User: Which sequence fits this backbone?
């Protein structure tokens, strides 16, 4: 049985007050809170077990290396990758997508080659491809969403042409909560020899992910959204694609041998992990994945489906509130505006006075905001520890904001 109160007790910050009110943390899409086991693991790593990894022969270095490298298998299991060698550590999805841009795409794409994107993409899944547009003449092809915020995968497939080399799509929109059929898109891409890149930042925290079932070439996740530390992340990179990638950064750990006249690279994935890594951050991410899997990703998904349905029904009762995106099967993310002159930043400030933490702005989705003809929205994004009671507090705070601007 899913015991949300027991889960909440594992997150110390959820017991605090903000502005004299119990904290209702609904900014999980930006970054999730951390359970005590992650906090304890970080403290233990720094206070009792810290050393650099890979290079040392002493006890602490071996211990740190064992714990750090052990996370690779945890990520592989979490994503159902075929091998832990297909997991590349990084600081998060932004670095992962830039790695794909520099290490795989830049050496292969030429002027006129195409990359397909959707208007829902986060800037992290846009800007690296703009680099290729600016520097190499690559063409970005954009696919629009439906009026309800859903994405028809056939529209993405239909956009694939003879010059299409990559399709880069989000698994779940960080603004609309739309879940994308990335398996259908990846299958069509593979049939055409097109590389598929999936931004899994939002989706991976809300339910099970199976990269073998999806059939993608790259799948990126970020630790701080997965109840782990900031500065941690990982990417699944299909072995065939890794073999085609050049190193992104040069330095220690990613080399086999360096001489005055030559350098040879370490085997993948190490050749994509230059320098001293985020040792403790990665260990913390591994503990966070252990925590999530101990609860059960299916159980988390079921809890959040209930929250989504309840929140949608309560928000639908506010006829002066405009919710952006109501795609079937959407995740627990709600972006909204109020009728009238109330700006998203003003709404967020009023909600904060009631202890409700939401995000306000463009959410790093400029093309989507242009598509929606909005300059900003408020976003309430839910997590495994949120409750129906917190939805009710959100509604009360929104009613207050409406009264103040009426």
Assistant:
């Amino acid at each position: 049985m899913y015991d949300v109160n027991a889960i909440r007790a594992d997150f110390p910050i959820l017991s605090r007050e903000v502005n004299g009110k119990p904290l209702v943390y609904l900014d999980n899409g930006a970054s999730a809170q951390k359970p005590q086991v992650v906090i304890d693991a970080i403290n233990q790593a720094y206070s009792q077990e810290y050393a650099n990894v890979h290079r040392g022969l002493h006890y602490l270095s071996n211990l740190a290396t064992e714990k750090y490298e052990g996370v690779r298998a945890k990520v592989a299991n979490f994503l159902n990758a075929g091998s832990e060698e297909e997991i590349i550590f990084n600081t998060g999805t932004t670095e992962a997508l830039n790695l794909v841009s520099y290490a795989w795409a830049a050496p292969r794409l030429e002027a006129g080659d195409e990359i397909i994107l959707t208007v829902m993409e986060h800037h992290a899944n846009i800007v690296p491809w703009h680099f290729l547009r600016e520097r190499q003449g690559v063409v970005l092809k954009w696919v629009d969403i439906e009026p309800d915020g859903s994405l028809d995968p056939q529209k993405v497939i239909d956009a694939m042409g003879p010059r299409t080399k990559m399709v880069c799509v989000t698994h779940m929109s960080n603004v609309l909560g739309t879940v994308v059929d990335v398996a259908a898109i990846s299958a069509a891409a593979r049939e055409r020899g097109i590389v598929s890149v999936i931004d899994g930042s939002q989706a991976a925290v809300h339910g099970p992910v199976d990269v073998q079932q999806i059939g993608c070439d790259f799948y990126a996740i970020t630790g701080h959204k997965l109840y782990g530390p900031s500065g941690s992340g990982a990417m699944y990179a299909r072995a065939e694609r890794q073999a085609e990638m050049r190193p992104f950064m040069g330095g220690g750990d990613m080399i086999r041998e360096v001489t005055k006249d030559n350098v040879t690279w370490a085997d993948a994935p190490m050749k994509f992990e230059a320098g001293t890594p985020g040792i403790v951050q990665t260990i913390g991410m591994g503990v966070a994945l252990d925590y999530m899997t101990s609860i059960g990703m299916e159980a988390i998904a079921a809890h959040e489906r209930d929250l989504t349905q309840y929140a949608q029904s309560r928000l639908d009762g506010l006829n002066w509130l405009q919710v952006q995106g109501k795609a079937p099967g959407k995740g627990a993310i709600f972006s909204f505006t109020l009728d009238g002159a109330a700006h998203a930043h003003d709404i967020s400030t009023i909600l904060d006075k009631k202890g409700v933490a939401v995000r306000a702005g463009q959410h790093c989705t400029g093309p989507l905001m242009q598509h929606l003809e909005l300059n900003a929205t408020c976003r309430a994004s839910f997590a495994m520890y949120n409750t129906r009671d917190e939805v009710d507090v959100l509604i009360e705070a929104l009613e207050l904001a409406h009264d103040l601007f009426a």
User: Anything to note?
Assistant: The longest strand covers residues 164-170. The chain has two domains: 4-30+296-405, 39-294.
